[in-house]
């Protein structure tokens, strides 16, 4: 696994050789439902609101790029705890997990900025970020859970010979320990974090860069994400995207999104690539 990080905000522990695949040791997994589907290129249903009909879009896929939080992993509880510990250090009241869920998706600096604005205090971001990053590191492996069907889907894509990568706004140094903890590190050839490049999603550059690392054009890849941040990044880069309904969608109208498919569970991805 190659982790791209030019501006890393925190240190991570090293990966074991090759990472740990779930099936290798039969260890317990943290899972949040699952079914393999047929291989090969498939027709992807997309609802056309104007025609009030289902269109079928053929997607030829040579690689798959995944968002992380809200797509593969439900980490909102841990992120919320890090935010709340930071607020407590500032003698501010805690906020609900649901509130923090609505803030996730645009990177840690935007997350903390939103939390400070919500609290109505004038502390600068640079003053607060070290405290938040300390709590973020401490809470990283507190209770993350893979969404249902993630492991089975990754195994099926690997069996098909499709290379996979992570493109997330999470700090790059925090991604390998999380993947290792959940025993899915070995599935991913590359990681692009929110601090790997000068620009993060929704800019197109991270998506374009990860496609280049995979040795593919953006049109040959499919991105899988959950938010407007992912949608705008993929659309701007020209990469087809499949959206999941269960993640941190915030105000995104999934049914109106320019996506090749919107799926209810991760295993349904296998019907669309």
Radius of gyration: 18 Å
Q: Could you state the oligomeric state of the chains shown?
A: single chain
In spatial order, strands of the major sheet run 1-8-7-4-9-10-11
The main sheet comes to: 7 strands, parallel
> What's the order of the H and E elements?
EHEEEEHHHHEHEHEHEHEE
What amount of the residues lies in strands? Answer: 15-25%
Q: Name the overall outline.
A: globular
Distance between the termini: 22 Å
Outline the structure in words.
- The chain is an alpha/beta fold and 273 residues long.
- It contains nine helices and eleven strands.
- It has a seven-stranded parallel sheet, with helices on one face. A two-stranded antiparallel sheet has the order 2-3.
- α7 (175-181) links the parallel β7 and β8 (190-192).
- The longest helix is centred in the middle third of the chain and has 15 residues, at 125-139.
- The protein is globular and about 55 Å long.
- The two termini are 22 Å apart.
Quick structural summary:
With 273 residues, the protein is α/β, with parallel strands linked by helices.
Search tags:
273 residues, single chain, alpha/beta, two-stranded antiparallel ribbon, 32% helix, 15% strand, 11 strands, seven-stranded parallel β-sheet
Summarize the SSE layout with pairings.
Elements: E1 2-4, H1 22-25, E2 43-48, E3 53-58, E4 63-66, E5 73-74, H2 76-89, H3 97-101, H4 108-119, H5 125-139, E6 145-146, H6 150-159, E7 164-167, H7 175-181, E8 190-192, H8 205-213, E9 221-225, H9 228-237, E10 241-244, E11 261-263
Parallel strand pairs: 1-8, 4-7, 4-9, 7-8, 9-10, 10-11
Antiparallel strand pairs: 2-3, 5-6
